[in-house]
Amino acid sequence: MNDAITGFAALIDPTIGLCLVVGVLLGTLVGAVPGISATMAVALAAGFTLTLEPLQGLAVLLSIYVAAQFGDRVPAILINTPGTPASIATTFDGYPMAKAGRAGIALTSSALVSAVGALAGILILIFAAQPVAAFALRFGPAEMFALVVFGLTMMVGVSGGNVTKGLIAGAVGLLFGAVGRDPITGDTRFTFGIPELSSGIPFIAAIIGLFGIAELFNQIIESRKGKSPKPITQLGEWWPNRAQRRELRKPTAIGVGVGLVVGVVPAVGGDIAGIISWDQARRASKTPEKFGTGSLEGVAAPDSASTATMGGSVMTTLALGVPGDSVMAVMIGSMVVWGLQPGPGLFVNHPDLVFSLATIMIAATILALGLALVRMRGVVKLLTLPQRYLWAVIIVFCLVGTFAVQNSVFDVGVMFAFGLLALVMKRFNFPAGPLVLGLILGPLAEGNLRRALLIDEGAALYTSPIAVFLLLLSLLAVTVPVIRSLLIARKIRAHAHTRTH
Amino acid sequence: MSTHKSRTTRTLGAVAVVSVALALTACANRSDVAATGDVFPSKTITFLTPTSAGGATDLTARTLAKELEDEFGVSVVVENRPGGAGSVGIQYLAGTAADGYTIAVLPVEVSLLGHQGYDIDPADFDFIAQANSQPGSIAVPVDSPFQTLDELIVAAEADPGSISISNAGPGSIWNLGATDLGLAAGVEFTHVPFDGGAPAVTAAVGGQVNAVVAGIGETAPAQKDGRLRVLAVLTDDRVPALPDVPTATELGFDVVIGSWAAIGAPAGVPTDVVATLEAALKNAIAAPAYVEFIESGGNIPFFRSAADTTAFVQTESERFASLLAGS
């Protein structure tokens, strides 16, 4: 308890408040610009914060981390372009909502559930850091493989009704995921001698192309055809009414649950949590058919999940010294320089620090939520622009953002290539979701399966309780819908039969 | 009325364009003045790093850049050119002007990638200095039955392939370290490459593998926390961070391998410019801020002269070629 008091007391310092505000402003901004991810912003800021006191520096870095997860929803909902990978699943329902004139409620609800998710994650960080971190350590290659297989079963769910086309898109995603160096032997595959491809398809460039550029091209084509696409001129209601607030509860609870588990597992972050929880909420929903067409539940689930991963990631990072996600990998670098070596020793040497960090994150969440709610009115003005100006602005942001990831013109080419691919897919009704899933999860599945096979010929796949549980869950996820639809078909047939009699 | 309005707009627009243009020419003038000096360095130096922002190599570049700025009085701008396991940035450096205004951190990969199908040859670069050394180590989970390196080797001897050792990635320096140890001891290990050093160490902490070969920067803090037991360091002499841990050589296995970072430029930089850079880097590498940064990561700040670094990188490259052939 004393540690908690010392931890909180350490923050009663106006400069820390200032650092928080700076971090939240920066984070919201970089989150909202597609391509500039929280990882990059934290990495660049780390260069400046090293000269600050550790707590001041951490206040800047952590609040960028938190606030970026609020900012990135805005382009996902308004222009179908995830601001950071964590909001990939936000585009599934957020953008359809915006097109239907309900952007206001999508933005507000998204900000609210993001805050709920973030706070839930941080509470777990405060109260359960060490036991939960011990659980995370049990995720070896076999368990990781099983988790990823479970993630891959979501392909059907994110297919948007057309399972065959969804699975084709997923297979193409897996193929793209295989580009680069073999995870075990290091041989290059499908790189055609291009050195840039040896570390795989640049992921940020690919998702900006798949979502943002494809949507942009599509709108341009539609308007050239004279179809005058319906611009998002109205944002509709701002505050969810009581019925809508009730509607948010279940998907948010599912999102928080999924986010906490995924966040604790090292090296997987908000993007995967968002997609998994979107699909889980769809399965649990009373109106699953609305998912993908502008369902408020479909916004709440992924947004609460991706923010809930933050507490888990920070926890894994602090307690194990293992980066919980890519932002944390950068943060460890800074912490080491400040003499705060993450790992079990941190809880012995600096027990108050965990409380300070959690308090910083709570304050950042509240600030970011406030900023998100206030700032949204300004977004209206942006949308009243004639569409051709908006297109120009969007394309500049996509270009600059993609280039900035690794100062690479090649990445910009990749962005356009994926934009064209997704445009063709869109015109022929192939969903982009499964492709992204294949691209993210394919390499994780392959690397971990092959590591598991190397270590004990894969024995852990059927002896580790975690792996067995997750694999069974995957099996159920694939088979249950099929069996259920068969049963329903039989019931209908039986019904029809009795009627003819 | 409307024509009047549009004329006003046009005039205002013209004023805006002209003022922006003037502002831009002002900028151009300033950089011209700076560029006319004769003595090196008289303009901004670009300090490339073939890694993303935020990692250890990037921070090495940023810390050194700050010292060089103080030394030279010109801006030293760090530019990240990540991708392709470092090959993208290293190849990019080879194509820049050899005038000393573009330098780079060249990590150990500069002597590795050429043997792994990349178009990279250490001979394409002028090495100016070595900036640090990151010694290797072998560690086991803290509850492992193996108390000494000998016990681990004996187990590998008894059942070839039964001992699994994680490393930072296929063809990485730590993969070679484990290979080298296997060759020196005449035993067969199962090498398990991970996607980076941190997950490889975690796999050992979690007991998923029998051992890990990694830099002491990663294993020493884990030993302090009671998560890993370091069995040996792969250095000539014992390291300050782990004074009680024997070297592999002491234990009878002649394995000395580690990661390092050199500073280099494209080949053909005038010798006096190299000498100026070398002298400045020598001071920068001894500067308290840099020493503290490198030591906080558990590594060793280490200066080697331009001539010695060139020879060292060449020797390392030849050694790695034969190790890679053996792995």
TrEMBL record, chain A:
Pfam short name (any one) = TctA
Highest taxon, organism lineage:
Bacteria
Which InterPro entries does the record match to this protein? DUF112_TM
Tell me where in this chain the DUF112 domain is found.
Answer: 19-437
Keywords carried by this UniProt record: Membrane, Transmembrane, Transmembrane helix
Residue intervals passing through the bilayer: 7-26, 105-129, 135-156, 163-180, 200-221, 252-278, 318-341, 353-374, 389-421, 428-445, 465-489
Extract the PANTHER family matched here.
TRICARBOXYLIC TRANSPORT PROTEIN (PTHR35342)
Task: Identify this protein by name.
Answer: DUF112 domain-containing protein
Q: Which organism is it from?
A: Cryobacterium melibiosiphilum
Automatic annotation (TrEMBL), chain B:
Q: Which UniProt keywords apply?
A: Signal
Q: Does the keyword Glycoprotein apply?
A: no
Q: InterPro entries attached here?
A: BUG, Bug_dom1
Q: Does the keyword Metal-binding apply?
A: no
Signal peptide position in this chain?
1-28
What Pfam families does this protein's entry cite?
Answer: TctC (PF03401)
The family assignment reads: Belongs to the UPF0065 (bug) family.
Task: Spell out the protein name for this chain.
Answer: Tripartite tricarboxylate transporter substrate binding protein
